[in-house]
What does this fold into?
Amino acid sequence: MEFSPLSRNMQYNNSNMVTEFLLLGFQNLQSFKICFYLLLLVIYCVTVCGNLLIILVVSSSRSLHSPMYFFLTQLSFSDILISTTIVPNMLHIVLYEGSSLSFIRCLMQFYFFSASESLECFILSVMSYDRYQAICNPLHYSSVMTITFCLKAVLLCWVLMFAVTLNLPVSISRLQFCGPNPNIIDHFFCDLDPILQLSCSSTFFIKIEDMILAVPTVICPFLVIVVSYVCIIITILKIPSVTGRQKTFSTCSSHLTVVSLFYVSIICIYLFPNMENIKKTISVFYTVITPLLNPLIYSLQNRAIKQAFKKLKRKSSAVLQMS
It folds into this structure.
């Protein structure tokens, strides 16, 4: 069933409130619709399987039972969460050229999207602190990055993720929507700006609230990452041999690549606030492509993970042969 212009009628309850949103997604796909759908489906399957494989490899290999790889599993959980929040409904939008979501489901999608993005910021900052301790403070690394510290850090990330991001959906739920098309969102998921554009209520305080919440969820983690890598670079430059510098830098190259992809896409969103097509493309990158690239980057650039994966593959083959 495709959404025709006649079916894009706004739905109200008895108090004249919007009860359902229509996500337009990607318009004018035409003959590319099936190809794009299949591409998204393959990317989603590879993303989930790739991140689950990272979790499995790390948990099954004793050589990877260290803080860095423990945090990597949490990053994989975050990637699975954000991909699962966005892509399944995105597939429906592509196939049927639109998708309707109830007001509550739209708020829930926005909440879990915001929460998973915040979790990714927190985890990336904790991973950068781990690399800082490993490179700049190696003699005290084991005493600082203890199991207790790692568990507390990850628990705090998950608690902050759900607690801090709850305010915005609650504020959005109090808005009123009116105008010629108050329930049509020109996007492929329920993001903040497209929702606020439909409101006839004042959104000033929600935008202020969004900027305030960006401090603990985006800016502070970013500053932790920047400060950590400034210290790391200074320490690496002090290493006398070129081989030593390269070997030391290789231990954080995967993380730095993932951080760069994630934050560059977020920064680009704010650089093009009024260009919807560009914002959609960038949104596809950090909600669909980045969760796919993260496990690939770590598996391709990290020798320890590749070796652990080969061992797991040999064990699996041996078990299958015995059975």
Observations:
- Residues 86 and 189 are 7 Å apart (CA to CA).
- Residues 1-16 have pLDDT under 50 and may be disordered.
- The chain is about 75% helix and 5% strand.
